Amino acid sequence: MSTAASPPVLEGRSVSKGYRLPTGEAIQALDAVSVEVPRGTLTALVGPDGAGKTTLIRLSAGLISVDSGTLSVLGENVARHPERVQERLGYMPQRFGLYEDLTVGENLDLYADMHGVTAAERSARYPRLLGMTALEPFTRRLAGQLSGGMKQKLGLACTLVRSPELLLLDEPTVGVDPLSRRDLWAIITQLVREQGLTVLVSTSYLNEAERCDRSIVLREGKLLAQGPPTEVSELALGRVFLVQPPAGQSARSLQARLIDDPGIVDAVPEGGQVRVVTPGESGKDLAAGIALRGLEVAAAEPMFEDGFMTLLRSTPGEGLAAAGSMTLERPHHALREDVVVSVRELVRRFGSFVAVDRVSFEVRSGEIFGLLGPNGAGKTTTFRMLCGLLPASSGTLRVAGMDLRKARASARQRIGYVAQKFSLYGQLSVSENLEFFASAYGLHRRRRRERIAWALEEFELERMIRLPSGQLPGGYRQRLAMAIALLHEPEILFLDEPTSGADPLARREFWRRITALAEQGVTIIVTTHFMVEAEYCDRVAIMDAGRVLAQGTPAEVRGWTGAEPGHALTMEDAFIRIVESARGQATSRSEHAGGAA
Amino acid sequence: MIESILRILALTRKELLAVLKDPRGRLTLFVPPIFQCLIYGYVASYDLNDVPFAVLDRDHSAASRDLIARLDGSRNFHRQAGLFRNQDATRWIDDRRVLLVISIDQDFERRLMLGQSAEIQLLADGRNSNTAGTAAGYVSAIIAEFNAAWRAAHGLAGMPVQVSLRAWFNPNLETRWHMIPSLIGTLTLLQTLLLTAMSVAREREEGTLDQLLVSPFRPIEVMAGKALPSVLIGIVQATNILLVAQLWFRIPFEGSYLTLYTGLTVFLLSAVGVGLLVSAISATMQQAMLYSFLVMMPFALLSGLATPISSMPETLQQFTRLNPLRYAIEIAERVYLEGAGLKLLAPDLWPLAGIALGTLLLASWMFRHRVA
Amino acid sequence: MNTHGRSLHGGALARARRIWSLVRKETHQVVRDPSSIATGIVLPLILILLFGYGLSLDVTNVPIAVVLEAPTPEAAELAAGFQLSPYFDASLLTAMHEAETLMLERKVDAIVRIRPDFARELSLGAAEVQILVHGTDANKARIIQAYAQGAVAQWSARRAAEGKDPAAGPVLVRDRLWFNPANDSHHFLIPGLVVLVMTLIGALLTSMVMAREWERGTLESLFVTPVRIDEILLGKTIPYFVLGMIGLSLCLLAARFLFAVPVRGSIWVLAGASMLYLLVALGAGLFISTATRSQFVASQITVLVTFLPAFMLSGFLFDLRSMPAAVRALTTILPARYYVAVLQSSFLAGDVWGVIVPNTAALAVMAVVVLMLNRAITRKSLD
Is the ipTM of this complex over 0.90? Predict the structure, then answer.
C-alpha cells in the first residue's frame, strides 16, 4: 500500500496559529507553515525554543485548531473531525500524562482499554513493549516512583499499546539519559522500519535529527527548511573544521574565544579539539581566516548541527546574548590547587535502598566539574547533600571547608544553586524575584541596587523585568535562575541539569557564561545529560547506581574503555560503554552469587 | 540578629506580594469574608420573623377572634389559612405549608366566661425542633398578653407572681449579636490556616523551598516569614468583619480595641501554628487543602458557634479546650459585647497562647525533621 | 475507513469497557491517596460522631445562680424548684453582687433573683421574680428564659392547686411537637449531617479531580484516544457516586443504631433523593474543577459555593423562615435546600408526598442542568 505515490500522512498548507499571553501579548506560534510527512518515514521536527514545534504537533493531534490554512492528517481535515484522526494516531505529549498513583501495568491497561485492545492482542504486545522498554521488572511499581527516563519509556509504551498509523512524539527524550535515549530511539526506528509506521518527532538533540529520514526546521513560527537531514548538513559543507588548541591552552578557552568571534558561526569543544563552522567555504572567508590564524586546522564532515547553526545564523532573528562579556565584579583569586569541595565515602540510604554508595571526589577552585550518569544514578541526591538539603547517612563532605548542613546559615552565602526544574516564584515578576533573593542573601540598599542592575544587564533581562517569571520563555527562565544564583557572587556554583530541555542556542549561551565564570575563579559543579557538554568540563565523574564508575578529565574518560587507535570515541559512546560494562559486571556478579547459593 | 530579622521581613514582603499581587488572590482573601459576614449576619439567626400558621377555630366566638387577631397582629406570624377539620391540620403541617396549627375548642369562650381555664392546642412541626420551640415560645408570649388583657377587662386579679426578664449584654436577645463577633474568629481561622498550609505546600511542590534553604535562610526564619504575613492578613480580615459589624449591623462595641487585637493576634498565631503543622504532614497542595479542611470542621463544630458548648457531653467539652476557635469566639464576644478586659479574659488567653506556642514549636520541629 | 473506525471504537461494548477502565483507574487513585480517604471516609466518620454525640441545641444543666435575699419559706420553695429542675444546675447565693461577679466571669449563664420582700408581695398577690440571663448567645438565652419561666409557672401552679394562690391564667397552652415529641435536637441535626457528608464527598472531592488532571497533563494524553467526553465524565462520576452512597449508608446506620433517630419514611425515597442530590453535587464539583483548571482555586470556590451554603443556607441549622426575603430567594437555587426538606420529612415525618414530589423534582431538574453544563464545557481540546 505504502508506495512513493501515496499521499502524505500529514500535510499542512499555510498553517497559522496564534496565542495571547496572559499579559495580553499576542504570539504567532505558527506563521503560514506548509509541511508534509510522507507515509512510512521518520521525520524530525527541530528548532529553537518558541519555534512552534509543540503547536504543530498539537494541531496534528486535533487538540487545538488552526487559525487559518488547512492541515490534513491521515486524509482527514483534523480541525473538522479531530475524533476520526485521534482514533488512528498515537500521541505522546512533552510531559506525558502518566497517572503517578497507578502502577506501570495499570497505566498500560488503562490506555489499552481506551483503545479497545483485546486480551489476545495484549498478551502478544505487552511482553514486547515491556521488553523493549526494559520495564518488565517494574510492572507493579507506581509510575510516580520511576526515574525520569523510565517514565518517558512508559509513556511511549502507553502510546504504542496498539499500532497507530501515525505516531506524534513531542520531545520524548528531554531529561532522558543517553542510555535510555538510545533505547527509545531503537524502539522508534524499529517501529518505522518493521511496521511501516509514520513518525513525527520533535527534539532538541540535533544528533537525533540526523538519524531521521526527513527533518523540518522551524524558527519563530516560520519554516526554515524541510527535507532529508543531509540537506541541512550540506549547508555547512566545506565550512566545518576541527581546530587543535595551541599547547598550554584548553579546548574550552579556545572555544570560548572562537564562539565570541563574529567571524565564526559556531564553535564547540569536541574530543579535545574545537569544532568550528565558518560562514563561508575554506579560505574564502576573511574574517574566519583571521580568527583561525596560526591554528592547526583540519577539515571535517559536516553534521546536522553544523548545518542547523549555519541555517539559524544566516536568517535574521534573535542571536546569542552577549554571554562572553560576563564579568564578575569581584573575581575570586584563589589558587587552582585549593580543594574547594571534597567528598569522601559519601553514603545516602533511603530505607534499604542505597541511593549514593561510597562516593568520593574532589573539586579544586576554578574548576568545572561534571557529574554524569543515567537517570536515577544518584547525581541529584549527591547534589542535595552537598547543598545541605539532605543529611548524609555516612561519609564526610566539605564545601568550602564546611558541612553546609551543620555550618552557620551565613556559610551558605558562599554557594549558588540552580535546581533541576525551574524553581523561582512563578507568580512574582523578574525584578521581584531578584529583589527577594538579594535580600535573602543579605544585600541591602546600594549594594542590592548595584547587583540587580548588574544581573539585568549581564543576562539581558531588562526587557522582561515586569513579566511574571513563570511566563518567561524557557531561555529567559534559565537566565533568571542563573542571575539569582550569582547575585551574591558565590565562590561555588551548583547546577543541576541546567540545560535539560534547552535548545542548542541557549545551551551555547549557557556554557559561554559558565566558562567565563570559571575563568574568573568560580568553582562549578554541574550535572548534565548532554554528553557533548562534558567536553566543557575540566574533570568529570560518571555515576551509575549510586557509585562513581570513572573519574578524570574528559580525555581520560574517553580513553577509559580503551578505544581502538585511530578511532576517537565520542563522550557519549564512552559513557554508554562505561555504564554498560559496570552493569554487566554487576549482573554477572549477582548471577554468580545466585548460582553459589 | 538584624540580618535574621531583615531576612524574615524580606520573606514576609515576598509572601504578601505573591498573595496580593494577583487580583484573584486579593478577591478570594478579602471579599468572601465580608460577603459571608453580611449573609450569615442575616441568615444565622434562630429568631423567626415569618412563622406561617393556620387556625382551626371551632368556637367562632368574640374571644377566639380576639386571640387570633392578636396572632395576626404580631410581626412574626403570618396566617396561611383557616381550617375546618383535624385532618387538614395534619396535612398542612406534613406538607410544610405551616409551622404551627392553633386549634381552639368550641367551648373556648364559654369556659372563659365561667372563669374556668380554657385550653388551646398548639401543633408544631418538630422536624426542626429548635424552630418549633422558638415559635411555640412566641405563641406563649402572645397568650400571656391575651391573659393579662382578659384579666384586666374582666376585673380578675393579676398573676400572683410576675416574672421580669432581662438580658445582659444583648437586651433584645438578637442571635446576630452572638453570630457576628463569633465570625471574626471563624472566618479568619479558615483562611489563615489554609493560606499558611498552602503557601508552604506550594513552595514544596514547586521546588522553591530548596532554593530558600540553600540561601542563608534558617528553617526557623522560613517559618517566621510564613507566619507573619498570614497573621497580618488575618488581622486585616478581622478588621473588615469588625467594620461590617459596626457600620452595617450597628452592633455596639463595648470593649477596648487593644484588648481585642491582642486576643486576635494570639489566636492568629495559633491558627498559623496549626496551618504550619498541616503543611508539615502534607506532600502536595491537594493534601494541604484537604487536611486543612479536615481539622477545620471539628474546630468549627466544637467552637460554640452553632451549638452551645455547655450542651456537649463532658468529654467533648474537655476536647474543646484544645480548640483555638473556642477561645477566639469567647474572646471576641466578651470584648465586643461585654467589654471584658484582659484580666477577665485570662482564662481564654493563656490556653490560646499555649496552643500557639505548642503548635509553632511542634511545627518547626517537624519542619526541620522533614527537610532532613 | 471511517465506518470501520466507528464499529471498532464506537460499539456499546467498547464504550462500557472504556468507562469501566476509567472507573477502575479513578478508584485506584482514590484508594491510594491518603487525603482522599481522609476526606471521603474519615471526615464523614468524625462528623457522624460529632453530630451524634457532640452537637446539641438542647439546653440542659445550665449553670445558674439563685439569689435568695431573704430565706422565707415561699422563697426557699421557689428556689428548690430551680434546684430540682433537670435543666438547671443551680447554686444558691444570698447576695446579688456575688451572683453578678459569677455572671461576669461567665461561670453562670443566668441569675434568678428572689427579692427580700418576695413573701410579703406574694401575700398581696403581686410578687416579682427577676431573671437575668447572659444574652450573648441569644438562642441559648431565650431557651433559658423559657425554662426559668416554666419553673416559676410550675411552682405557682402547684401553689394554686394547693389553694394557696388564685388559679393561673385563664388560657393555657398545651403544645404538642409533632414528629419529634422528645424535642431532641438530634432528630433534626442528623438530616443535616447527611447533607454535609454528601456535599463533602460529592463536591469537595470531585472539585479537585478534573483540575488535577489538567494540572498534571494527563488529560492531554487521554484526549488523543478514542475515549469520548461523556465517558470521561462518567468515569469521574461513578466512583465518587459509590463513595457518596457508602457515606450515606454510614450515616443511616449511625442514625438508626447509634443515635436511635427513626427513619419514618420509605428508605427508597430517601435513597432516591440522595442519589439525585449526589448527582447535583458531583456535577457542581466537576463543573468548578473543569472551569477553573486549578486545584487551589477550585477548592476555594467549592467551599464557598457548595459547602458553606449547605451548612448555613440549607435550612438544616438555621431555619429558612428566619431569613430575610432576599436571602431566602437566593436559597431557591441551592440544591441542598431541597434535599434537606426531603431528608427532614423522610427521617421524622414519613413519606409526605406533598414535600417529596416538588423537592425531588427540583433536584432532578438541577441534576440534569448541571450534568448538561458539564457536557457543554468539557471539550477534547486544549484551546
Answer: no
